[in-house]
Amino acid sequence: MDAKLDRRAFLGLVGAGALTAGLGLAGCSPEQNGGNQAASAEPADAPAQAPAGIARKEGSETKACDVAIVGAGAAGLLAALKLTEGGKSVVVIEKAPSAAMSNFSMCGGPTACETKLQEQENATVTLDTMFTYMNEFSRTSVNGALLRNTLSHTGDAINTMLDLGIPMTLIPDSYGVGFRGRHMFDTGGEERVAPLVQAIEAAGGEFLFSTAAEKVIMEDGVAKGVQTDKGIDVMADSVVVCAGGFLGSEDMQMDRFNTKVYALGNTLSDGTGIAMVLDAGGAWDRNFAVLGNECGAVSAATEGSPFNPDWTNVNEHYGYWLFGGLYTDTAGERFINEGKIAQFPLAIGGEALLRAGKAYVIMDSDYYEAVKGDGIFAYLGQPESWVPGPMADYYKTTPENAEAHLAQAIDEGWALKADSLSEIAEKFSLDSLEATVEKYNGFCDAGADGDFGKDPAFLKAVKTAPFYAFEYVPSAWGTNGGVKVDSHLRAMDEKNNPIPGLYVAGVDQGSVYSVPYYTNEGASVGLALGSGVYVAEEIMKS
């Protein structure tokens, strides 16, 4: 296994990453996310919650089909393919001008079980193995039957794409979960989605690109079609909503997370699909999470993409969030086992920063200079317990950039170098910082974390001036969580009854995604793909 593939494995990118860097792909181009769209102006009617009622506007044109699908991402494309191959007439409604702008077209790759690639490498992950791991991780907070049903179709999704000539590589167990589930895509953008789009069209499916779905058309409590912004009513016996979550809606972020999330992925997914289902009588489910930034963090001053073409951080001081040092909340108090964030930066790291709203990494000059020199893994003594540790130095601060990047961070207001901890506490209003550091240093001296049980390898005292602080805010490739569905992906109303004719797949449904995001990488897109195959099967037999 070469070093580049090992680094890809460590990154575990859902939105984009070292894989796309190695291929020269624009994983998160301005056309796709336009920088920090989450903090930009939203349309006046951007949905934050179920509106009082989305206006019904009769279309000037009607298209009739068996199934109307909202969204041409992972779930929508696989559902459309399976349905058209099964003889159903399908119309896919997509806001973007092509399917190459979805998070699916950019993501690193899905987790799946019982695939051809696993069989070829004698590394088959059984359905029972993957289901048991993910179900136990969720601690029964998801619909267990739906989780199993969805996972059972992930292998079909992977094998279908392989048969269409979409290349993938089965990567190592990057985070030490005990199995090799992640299938990294070897292509991205148009090259990735074109075989699926072409196969759907060849089987009779139709795409309405640059067309936004607005409302599920209901008749006597039954879903009968989709109203669009182009004056086209797509009438259908079944409607599948899979519009990709709500990363592009600051209002919905505040409603569900109580904090803004810096958008790394596709901001065209602005919660409209979820709002449509709620308008049709659907209900929220309970779990909401993000696919966090596993390349480190961002600051409140970040604009545009925080990544260089090689997927290093534009400011190298974003990377400290990955290293498991001393982290505090806005009160200057520890709030988590920081080593868990270092072990699972996308899942646990994303949730930790989202819950905190913003957080601070505190270090002394010994730590700062060591990371800049030999790197974090060497400074910690190369702990075998830190599975992704050897790759973490991809995000270390370098001697050639450290001074300029630190000056920029200080100038932008999210970092400080100070002779005393009291200066840092005053700058960021961290009232408990000095007491926290004193207590933490005691744990470091004793070699045991008495509060959170952090691996002693990550315990490095904060004693030698000057001291440093870095303020980080949440960033994510996408959101998980939305409306409630049953184990057959049927939208549920507020009385827990299915709404006839209305299905929800992908991340618009909240019944199969856990909090935090699953620690087996690629789970979000894997479940989305599996749900696309599964919802098609359910519609075919309904």
Automatic annotation (TrEMBL):
InterPro entries listed in its UniProt record: FAD-dep_OxRdtase_2_FAD-bd (IPR003953), FAD-oxidoreductase_2 (IPR050315), FAD/NAD-bd_sf (IPR036188), Succ_DH/fumarate_Rdtase_cat_sf (IPR027477), TAT_signal (IPR006311), TAT_signal_bac_arc (IPR019546)
Keywords: FAD, Flavoprotein, Oxidoreductase
Disordered as annotated region, ranges: 32-57
Domain FAD-dependent oxidoreductase 2 FAD-binding: 66-513
Keyword Oxidoreductase listed: yes
Cofactor or coenzyme needed: FAD
Pfam family, one: FAD_binding_2
Regions of compositional bias (Low complexity) in chain numbering: 38-54
Protein name (record): Reductase
Native source organism of the sequence: Raoultibacter timonensis
